[in-house]
Specification:
The protein is built from 9 helices and 12 strands. The protein is an alpha/beta fold. It has 2 domains: about 5-105, 60s Ribosomal Protein L30, Chain: A (2-Layer Sandwich); about 110-265, Alpha/beta knot. The protein has a 7-stranded parallel sheet with strand order 8-7-6-11-9-12-10. Strands 1-4-3-5-2 form a 5-stranded mixed sheet.
């Protein structure tokens, strides 16, 4: 079980993993930083504790840390306990959720490994908004998508805001990076996947007619503004659209993803 360590001084070096999270150039979860995974709040911390990410420490007010102790039964890590004022001085802002946890990253999964053990996949291109990325992972977890492949231009799904918005589900939905885009989409086809590109183009097939619940299917979702590139759409087996009423040309990418993931499930 995690062992309680009282912290009364905001400059205590033992909580440096949690320090100055509001400063973009020092946040440890940013690319170029220490590469830590940061979970906020009891629910998300519980999911981090149950994930393959090696937990380093917890930090929070006593009440919130106490709620999590049972979930740390198999861990030998420190749980730093302090008051809300000291925690705010360490973190750089007042944290309403009252508890944080940090972990090292798990080993990277190879795309071929993820594809080989999956039947339904989401493939993302240019998803740069961390909140949209987190919401997509939450939707994928809720609607039975087996994993996520990250193509060109995607943000880091383990960025603190993405982890928070996903409610920790980014920690349980496996993901892999496609280094050659869109050439690596061939890996999907080689493994028997049908690749569907989601686009509002009028000549695309309506979602209800695309039979995405049959066989192994990967759905491509594009950036929040321009959507998928022409190259990505051309590399897919078919283009699919979500029919909408006149005057509305698109949906938020996480919303469009949820609708499409539901169609893939066949429910």
């Amino acid at each position: 079980m995690a062992h309680i360590v009282e912290v009364s001084d905001a400059v205590d070096p033992r909580v440096d993993d949690f320090r100055d999270l509001s400063r973009a150039d020092r946040r440890p979860d940013r690319p170029g930083g220490r590469g830590l995974v940061i979970a906020e709040g009891v629910v998300v911390v519980e999911r981090l504790l149950a994930s393959p990410y090696p937990v380093r420490a917890l930090f929070g007010v006593r009440r919130r840390v106490d709620e999590l102790l049972a979930a740390t039964m198999d861990l030998d890590v420190p749980a730093y306990v302090t008051d809300a004022d000291v925690m705010a001085r360490v973190v750089g802002f007042h944290l309403n959720r009252g508890v944080l946890a940090v972990a090292d990253r798990a080993p990277v999964i190879a795309p071929a490994e993820l594809i080989g053990r999956s039947r339904r996949l989401a493939v993302l291109e240019g998803i740069g908004d961390h909140e949209n990325l987190g919401a997509l992972f939450r939707n994928a977890a809720a609607l039975g998508v087996d994993g996520v492949l990250l193509g060109a231009g995607c943000s880091d799904p383990l960025y603190r805001r993405s982890v928070r918005v996903s409610m920790g589900h980014v920690l349980r939905v496996p993901f892999a990076h496609l280094d050659s885009w869109p050439e690596d989409l061939k890996l999907l086809r080689d493994n028997g996947f049908r690749v569907a590109a989601l686009t509002p183009r009028a000549d695309a097939r309506a979602l209800r007619d695309a039979a995405l619940d049959r066989g192994s299917v990967a759905v491509l979702l594009g950036s929040e503004g321009p959507g998928l590139t022409d190259e990505a759409i051309a590399a897919a087996d078919l283009a699919v659209r979500i029919p909408m009423v006149g005057g509305v040309d698109s949906l938020n990418v996480a919303t469009a993803g949820a609708i499409t993931f539901h169609a893939m499930s066949g429910a």
